[in-house]
Amino acid sequence: MQTIFLRFKSVVLIVFFLFAYQHLSSQDNCSSTLESAEILFEQGIIEDIPGLLAGCIRDGLSTEEKKRAQKLIILSYLFDNKVQQAENAMESFLRSNPEYKIQPGDPAEFTSLFSSYRTFPYLSLGAFLGGNLTSASMLEPYGPYNHNIDNGQFSILPEMHIGAAAYIFLTNRLELNIETIYSRNSFSYTNLQYGFAEVYKKETHQRLEFPVLLSYDLNGHKLNPYFRIGASYGLILSAHSTYRRTNLNELNEAFNPLESNNIDISDSRTSGTFNAVMGAGLKFSIARGYVIFDMKYSYGLSNLVNPENRWDQETVFRYYYADGDFMTDNLSFSIGYRYSFYKSTKL
């Protein structure tokens, strides 16, 4: 069995080296072909240049060599007075190099044809991940305690999210952002009730968020700050909570803590929520896209509690807790990547 494995490994290595050798040999041949085509162009022998380079453009040239070959084909068509073929070749060049900028050494004929096209991004697709902080605020308190004396407090807890987005370019600086985000959001609640019992609760949601935002770029430079504003609809996929009630003696010392398992409280939460969203960030331009650093604040507009399932006997009598109406806000930080799609139009 070991002998068969060694033979198979040897065959794989031989095939790999043969493929690598063939690829390098093909690239060397095409590099020589490109140099020969450039010599022919200088001598005014231009009719055969497009056919000579066609195969090498498909495969066999480095990125920079492919640009040289494509530009040479365009110039050959222009000097041969084949305007339509030159335009077709230019469109192919722009599809391969949508972010190309005219270089000082580019011939005037190439520059003139290039300038007759407008190439612009129309869509970006991206993905991102990061962390978030969720806070909650009470709208109306309920529960088995004195609301005038005992004031419960929510605390912020960190979690994570991951998402994907489509960015539609409306103008040079204005974009429509449509996102889908999966997130975990957690927060806690603490209340000292009647001076003899401390109640603690940690709640965690799994959510799908669908933000729609308008984004405005502040400049068109390589490092580009932006801000955005919009709204979001969220689906609560699941909600779980843990409870702890700790008794306190006359010296305010804790004793006899009572803790719960992780309890599914999805029926006690509304299925969907609305949020107002605002954010800002930085886009760092790279080839065919951007690296993004984003910060976003989502302000809750909806009560999360389902009033029909507010009173649960176990949580009320065992842990001295019942849901008050509350909503949540969220601050998120993300890093991501966007890949841009371009199209060219003749002016």
Identify the notable features of this structure and list them briefly:
347 residues; alpha+beta; Porin; 6 helices; 10 strands; 28% helix
| Beta-strand segment tally | 10
Mean pLDDT over the residues: 87
How far apart are the termini?
67 Å
CATH class designation of the largest domain: Mainly Beta
CATH topology group of the largest domain? Porin
Q: How large a portion of the residues is in β-strands, by DSSP E?
A: over 45%
- Rough shape? rod-shaped
Number of domains: 2
Structure commentary:
The chain is of the alpha+beta class. The chain has two domains: 2-115, no CATH class; 121-346, Porin (Beta Barrel), CATH 2.40.160. It is 28% helix and 48% strand. The chain contains six helices and ten strands. The protein has helices at residues 2-42, 49-58, 63-79, 83-96, 108-115, 313-319; strands at 117-140, 153-169, 174-193, 197-217, 223-248, 254-259, 263-264, 272-286, 289-300, 325-346. The chain has an eight-stranded antiparallel barrel. Strand 5 and strand 6 form a beta hairpin. The chain is rod-shaped, with a radius of gyration of 32 Å. The N and C termini lie far apart (67 Å). Mean pLDDT is 87; it is low at 5-26.
